Amino acid sequence: MNGNSGMQPIIILPEGAVRSKGRDALKANIAAAKAVADTVRTTLGPKGMDKMLVDSLGDVVITNDGATILDEMQIENPAAKMMVEVAKTQDKIVGDGTTTAAVLGGELLKKAGDLLDDDIHPTVISKGFRIAKEKALDTLNRIAADVSIKDTRTLEQIANTAMTGKSAERASKELAVLAVKAITGVAETADGKTDVDTDNIKIEKKEGGSMSDTKLIEGILIDKEKVHSSMPSKIKEAKVALLESALEIKELEGDAKISIESPEKLQAFLDSQEKSLRDMVEKVKASGATALFCQKGIDDVAQHYLAKAGILAARRVKKSDMEKLAKATGASVTSNIKDLTESDLGYAGSVYEKKIAGDDMIFVEKCKSPKAVTILIRGGTEHIVDEVERAMEDAIKGLASALELGKIVAGGGASEIEVSKAVRNHAESFKGREQLAISAFANAIEVIPRALAENAGLDPIDKLAALRSHHEKKEIVAGLNVFTGTIENMQENGVVEPLKIKLQAIKSASEAAEMILRIDDMISSGKSGAPPMPPGGGMPPGMPPMM
Predict the structure, then answer these.
(1) Among 116, 226, 473, 501, which has the highest number of CB atoms less than 10 A from its own CB?
(2) What CATH number did the domain enclosing 89 receive?
(3) Which residues are the active-site residues?
């Protein structure tokens, strides 16, 4: 007799749970990740197309920024979410190259799927990918060229490359100049290293005008209006005070009450409140301040006295804007009005209120060597302004990444072809199945120049062959000019990218691919209480047929 006869099946998962194991789980994950990569692949490069994304509320986003597309798509598949995380990580760390990272991750998994079909074990593929990744990173570091904050022309080329292919491309030269001026303005150099905090570059956007009306303000633009109509609208040689606390009488806390027995006492109480507010304004006036920015509220009575004193004031200014104002003007943020002195004041050559696209805004300009600046973005429609903002952020973060490492590489697929060549040669020094995985990694890297050619309507096979031929002759900066279809020197053409973008794209894409390759079992728990749906829809088991 069979010892197992009569045994009940052991159920360890909740009803409605779905489980796929082994190769089925791997294939499903690879297909999902590849689908995500294919979604953004057509947006790559100067000839890439845009995506229109419409959410459940009907809001429209038009962009070709990889991270924005994948975020707006609201992807649910767990493996596909890993590709989204690759793009988000790339965006957070270097700000550009999000499409490159996602496309590369998808291609690595596609090549891994081909190896799985040849019965190569996932751990062998992962090991080969790790070896190839290290070689790829070493090669990128070897072929990188130096860049410093003084290389204005090269920095403008980096910014221009970051914006190419986006809606902002029509005005990319002017915008690139603004991005470089902003970066060089807020950069701080110490011990020969340049450090750029991109948070010190504020980006404000207003519809109206055209992209070419975008301008750099050497100071801070506050999306607020002066609190009282009688205040001056323009102050030259302004002394700026930054106040963290409110210019108001404190409210009573808890259930505390004030008991007033007669009209005279009420009047005395109101007079004392007014005197307190007048004293606060006198304190501001005594410090010599002519412009006041308050993080909290300003009482109506205080507004009246500030206006009489000829002080321009704004209230409820964001904390982040207060910090930027401090860096731009050199003022100290004072937490208590009683502590405000002349030494706490900052300087701005001009503080004025101006109407932009129907909204009053306060400009704090002409500061002495400001360490915080503002870029005011203009454009014909809301969608154009949003896309120019994304392009400007890519340019600024790209410039910061280039200066952080002080290294750049050639674009146009040049660096990818050189890396692919080095990794392929490296594979020949290995015996066994790792060699196949390393070679597959080398082939996957070539997806970037391939996609550039495809998106430009060129023959990818011909162009890849031509690129390889040039690189075999040690022309390491030879890349594809997608506008002419010829192979040219990318450094001479000004098509350059920060080294950090390429390093991060390879790191995050290969690590995500390795993680997905190690998953051989997927368990998806069903919702409790709901009977599982049979494959292909239909009614749950046990349900009576509809009459």
Answers:
(1) 501
(2) 1.10.560.10
(3) 65, 98-99, 394
